[in-house]
Design brief:
The complex is a heterodimer of chains A (about 270) and B (about 325).
Chain A (H helix, E strand, L loop, with lengths): L1 H20 L1 H11 L1 H16 L9 H17 L5 H10 L1 H6 L5 H31 L7 H26 L9 H14 L11 H8 L8 H8 L4 H32 L6
Helix pairs in contact in A: 1-7, 2-7, 3-4, 4-7, 4-11, 5-8, 8-11, 8-12
Chain B lengths: L4 E14 L4 H9 L2 E15 L4 E5 L6 H8 L7 E6 L9 H4 L2 E5 L11 H12 L3 H14 L15 H13 L5 E5 L7 H18 L2 E5 L3 H7 L2 E6 L2 E7 H8 L2 E8 L11 E6 L2 E7 L3 H11 L2 E8 L2 H14 L1
Helix pairs in contact in B: 4-6
Classes of the chains: A mainly alpha (about 270), B alpha/beta (about 325).
């Protein structure tokens, strides 16, 4: 365990050092990324204003809060993508990672965790700017603040498991971008990324309760923006932990089959 | 003394889809896909003892890298037995991976934008090396490879040779007992190649490490390896001392002669390979070497004469061509 803690800290340190080297690129990437929530925010605020100030139970200020927190959650949700898996298998880079006496996913988790610290620092001025423009309504208790902090890391780990599983398909075939796109389409609708889940039809909301997507977007945002009882916060974090365990277990099983399939192409 | 590496009847076969060109063949292949079996490694057997440095030679596509990948646990063998340090590599036991390393000339494990020292520290964490031991080993390697002025520069600013030396340091920080080196001097200049060879030899001497090395540079093999294994089309053609390879497969010797009269015609004594400043290089059949040498000395005014084996590159070529014909 001590070795893993040491490794995580070292890898996060490397990531922070490296990503600060790319700070300008990171910043432009984040600025580009806020275009998506700003469009959603403008559309829904307009609808709310036209409906007398509320749409689906959200005021324009609450929509602003939702989508500003969305920008942070979205950045926390950036993980090693299936395209990255495809790239590292095809280029042969996975071979070098496999020579290490530890599962490559540790490096993925640690490296992207370190990157988050850079992201949060860069996100703060953007959030302040968006708040100044869109005037969000926040009413945050310290309990919600703690739950949010836990939930964004839970979301990060769930998404890491899901996208790693998806990426491992490339052990069997290296042309799987169509499957990836299907996944991202489902995630867009069922996670709360497109609109708050409460604005979706009831059957979509029911379905989303049994799938992992909602726990990576809607739940973390709602811990900060919504009004949840402590029992709901604990149950939500418990569900996140459950999805992490399920994801890690499946990943472990798939990995054992995948590694036998590995053809170590490209060197 | 038990072998460090034991391979018996080891094979790796791939099923490769194939079809002819054209639309009709493309449509047919959707319903009736044909596969061809490629025998990348085909039933090879050898042992390597502790501390041996063995050259693993063969042309491109011979099966060298596939064998190294099976030995390092990256590939599952199709059949046969393989054990390294008592472990079956394909099980990828972490205890096993801690005791070996694989260096590939075209691979990069250093963080591109940061000084190599940061990557070295990550290696320390990966292998759980105690800090004092890590610093001692790192500094020893930095001294041996003369890297002191380079370790603080971002990796992207280093030359290919400098990067390769850093790669080797990173790959050996955990003091592996077995080294799989796949073209470690690929693309490097002569000086850099020599430095890396000296370093590998020194590491082998100090740690009694076992080394299996592939290289297209015969200078690497001649400097480091007493024993060579020659592989071609996935099969072993030769396994033994480098000197035996020369004796067994070298059908010719090279005679270099300096004559008092540089214009003398020598084609009657052997095949003239070159003429340079009065020095003539002849290729003569090995069996006739002493006879030709004696004739040259008796017939002509000779200032200097040397007899050498053919270059190892030529001999290896000859091994391949003889076996192809067979």
């Amino acid at each position: 365990m001590k070795r893993y803690i040491d490794f995580y800290l070292s890898s996060m340190r490397i990531s922070i050092l490296q990503q600060f080297q790319y700070r300008v690129a990171n910043y432009f990437y984040m600025i580009g990324m806020i275009a998506e929530p700003v469009i959603y925010l403008v559309v829904w605020s307009t609808i709310a204003n036209q409906q007398g100030g509320v749409a689906g139970g959200y005021t324009p200020g609450e929509f602003a809060a939702y989508y500003i927190v969305w920008t942070l959650v979205r950045n926390m949700n950036i993980v090693f993508t299936p395209y990255g898996w495809e790239w590292r298998i095809r280029q042969g880079n996975l071979s070098m990672e496999l020579m290490r006496p530890m599962h490559p996913i540790h490096n993925d988790i640690a490296y992207f965790s370190g990157w988050k610290f850079v992201v949060i620092i860069l996100w703060l001025p953007l959030a302040l700017f968006l708040s100044w423009v869109f005037k969000p309504t926040f009413d945050i208790t310290w309990m919600e603040g703690i739950a949010f902090f836990i939930a964004i890391w839970g979301a990060y780990l769930i998404r890491t498991m899901l996208l790693s599983l998806l990426g491992m398909i490339t052990f069997w075939t290296t042309r799987v971008s169509a499957i990836f796109e299907l996944y991202f389409g489902l995630e867009l609708i069922l996670s709360g990324r497109l609109v708050p889940m409460t604005l979706m039809p009831q059957w979509v909301q029911n379905l989303s309760n049994y799938l992992p997507f909602k726990w990576t977007f809607f739940f973390p945002i709602e811990t900060l923006v919504g009004t949840m009882f402590i029992q709901e916060l604990v149950a939500g974090i418990g569900t996140q932990i459950l999805w992490i365990v399920i994801g890690a277990s499946i990943l472990n099983l798939v990995w054992r089959a995948a590694i036998k399939q590995f053809s170590a192409v490209g060197g | 003394m038990s072998s460090v590496i034991t391979i018996s009847q080891l094979s790796k076969h791939y099923q490769v889809p194939e079809r002819e060109g054209g639309l009709k063949a493309a449509i047919t292949s959707l319903f009736n896909r044909k596969y061809r079996t490629v025998k990348a490694v085909n039933s090879i057997t050898f042992n390597i003892e502790p501390g041996e440095v063995v050259g693993f030679l063969g042309p491109n596509g011979a099966g060298k890298t596939t064998t190294l990948k099976m030995l390092s646990g990256l590939l599952h063998p199709t059949s046969g037995d393989v054990r390294v340090l008592g472990y079956e590599p394909f099980r990828r036991s972490y205890d096993y991976l801690r005791q070996i390393t694989l260096v590939m000339g075209n691979r990069n494990q250093l963080t591109w934008d940061l000084p190599a020292l940061d990557s070295f520290d990550l290696q320390r964490a990966v292998y759980g090396i105690p800090v004092d031991e890590f610093k001692r080993t790192r500094d020893e390697f930095i001294d041996l490879l003369e890297l002191k002025d380079l370790v603080n520069k971002p990796v992207r600013n280093l030359s290919l040779g400098e990067r390769m030396k850093m790669e080797i340091v990173a790959a050996l920080l955990h003091k592996p007992k077995v080294l799989f080196l796949d073209e470690p001097t690929l693309g490097l200049d002569v000086t850099m190649q020599r430095r890396i060879r000296v370093f590998i030899a020194e590491y082998n001497r100090r740690n009694n490490a076992t080394v299996l090395l592939t290289s297209h540079y015969m200078a690497d093999v001649e400097a480091l390896c007493k024993r060579v294994i020659v592989i071609h089309h996935g099969r072993i053609l030769f396994d033994g001392d480098l000197s035996n390879l020369v004796n067994q497969f070298s059908a010719y010797k090279t005679l270099s002669v300096t004559l008092q009269n540089p214009d003398t015609e020598l084609s009657q004594y052997g095949e003239v390979l070159s003429k340079d400043d009065g020095r003539v290089t002849l290729r003569v059949p090995k069996a006739q070497t002493s006879q030709v040498t004696a004739k040259l000395l008796s017939d002509l005014q000779v200032d200097d004469l040397t007899v050498e084996d053919a270059p190892v590159d030529d001999i290896i070529d000859q091994v391949f061509s003889q076996k192809e014909e067979a």
